[in-house]
Design brief:
By secondary structure, the protein is an alpha/beta fold. It has a single domain (about 10-240), classed as Amidase signature (AS) domain (Amidase signature (AS) enzymes, Alpha-Beta Complex), CATH 3.90.1300.10. The chain has seven helices and eight strands; from the N terminus they run H-H-E-H-E-H-E-E-E-H-E-H-E-E-H. It has helices at about 10-20, 25-45, 50-65, 110-115, 160-165, 180-190, 230-240; strands spanning about 45-50, 75-80, 120-125, 135, 140, 170-175, 190, 220-225. The strands form two sheets. Strands 1-3-2-6-8-7 form a six-stranded mixed beta sheet. Strands 4-5 form a two-stranded antiparallel sheet. Helix 5 packs parallel to helix 6. It is globular and about 45 Å long.
Length: about 250
């Protein structure tokens, strides 16, 4: 796979380069988009593309950097597992009956990574109901391992692990009950972390058509995925914390 000098850098390295103005957020985002367009016909990691909004967010990030603003993920391109609600995009969990379900608002974890400045380029493929150690469904098809297209990238966060291994941005977020973060990391040679239960609030990581209410299920967590261990803590620090609903703060469902 052809690559730029930035395609496989860590988020920590890219953040330093952005701050030093060695590269722009638009350049990093366009690099990720170009790689998706060149390679994802075979890998099939990105099941939902959001390139226009990503480039707009990247331009906003560059403007913020020019003003001297500093946020933990400012200007870094990122992918998100399909199971997270993102406003205006489908959330199906690979369930054919839900192929037309469109989220009305961002999940809380997505809101937090966006508030930290990240640029979301798209959503990554999953198995049916997030229930397999491979990543395929009848809506989006099969995701393949970038290192060997005849092999699986794992599951259920296999689209995210494949995206990281293919250089579609330095960061992603996934979920795990019985290995869905850890198994794909092993299959694709990347890093993932299953956090302590209830450390990261999961509102909006719910199967359609359920409303995006706070959600707790034994052993089920969401967590960061990246190409370096240091990047995991960078994302986890942003995502961690209680849900404002649980803290008694006002919140209104749209």
């Amino acid at each position: 796979m052809a690559e730029s000098e930035w395609s496989f850098k860590s988020a920590v390295e890219l953040s330093a380069a952005l701050t030093a103005r060695k590269v722009s957020a638009v350049e990093l985002t366009q690099d990720a988009i170009d790689r998706i367009e060149r390679h994802d016909g075979k890998v099939n990691a990105i099941c939902v593309r959001d390139f226009d909004r990503a480039l707009s967010a990247a331009r906003d990030a560059d403007a913020a950097l020019a003003r001297g603003e500093r946020k933990p993920l400012l200007g870094l391109p990122m992918t998100v597992k399909e199971s997270y609600n993102i406003a205006g995009l489908p959330t199906t969990w690979g369930i054919p009956a839900q192929k037309d379900f469109i989220a009305k608002q961002d999940s809380l974890p997505v809101t937090r990574v966006k508030d930290a400045g990240t640029v979301i380029v798209g959503k990554t493929n999953v198995p049916l109901g997030l229930g397999d150690w491979q990543s395929y469904n009848d809506i989006y098809g099969t995701t393949n391992n970038p290192y060997d297209l005849g092999r699986t990238p794992g599951g259920s966060s296999g689209g995210s692990s494949a995206a990281l291994a293919a250089g579609y941005g330095p960061l992603s977020i996934g979920s795990d009950i019985g290995g869905s973060l850890r198994v794909p990391a092993f299959h694709c040679g990347i890093y993932a972390h299953k956090p302590t239960f209830n450390l990261v609030a999961m509102r909006g990581h719910t199967p359609p058509p359920l409303p995006p209410l706070p959600f707790e299920r034994d052993l089920s967590v969401i967590g960061p995925m990246a190409r370096s261990a240091a990047d995991l803590s960078l994302v986890l620090d942003v995502m961690a914390g209680p849900d404002p609903i649980d803290a008694g703060l006002a919140y209104r469902l749209e």
